[in-house]
Design a protein that fits this description.
Blueprint (H helix, E strand, L loop, with lengths): L2 H20 L16 H10 L6 H17 L15 H6 L7 H18 L1
């Protein structure tokens, strides 16, 4: 997939996210001024509105990471082991940050953390 195709795909995800985030009652008033907030500014707005547990927040941070990776030429590289992320994983989720092996390990460790915290 070319860089332009990836940019278009990420742009589509961004548009959809902006629409969903703008509809959240907790931050709707902040977005009424039609200012074109950057992804970082949207992350900050959601943080200030205590929406870090909202699934849209996770997707927004993943989108920001994917855009940054694309800018520096590391899109599709695992954030943990630096191997290429499998094409089928990126096709299923263009915001994926980990290869299959690291993703499995991360989920296992995260489940363990959740058990220890409860």
């Amino acid at each position: 997939m070319s860089t332009n195709q990836i940019k278009q795909m990420l742009s589509g995800i961004e548009s959809e996210l902006r629409q969903k985030i703008g509809a959240l009652p907790e931050i709707q008033a902040k977005l009424m001024d039609q200012h074109n907030y950057s992804l970082c500014e949207l992350i900050e707005i959601m943080t200030q509105a205590h929406l870090c547990d909202n699934p849209l927040f996770l997707k927004l941070t993943q989108l920001d990471a994917a855009c940054c990776q694309l800018d520096i030429g590391l899109y599709g590289v695992c954030s943990d082991c630096e191997s290429d992320i499998e094409t089928e994983l990126l096709a299923a989720n263009p915001l994926e940050q980990r290869c299959l092996n690291c993703n499995s390990q991360y989920k296992q460790e995260h489940r363990q953390e959740l058990r220890l915290n409860h």
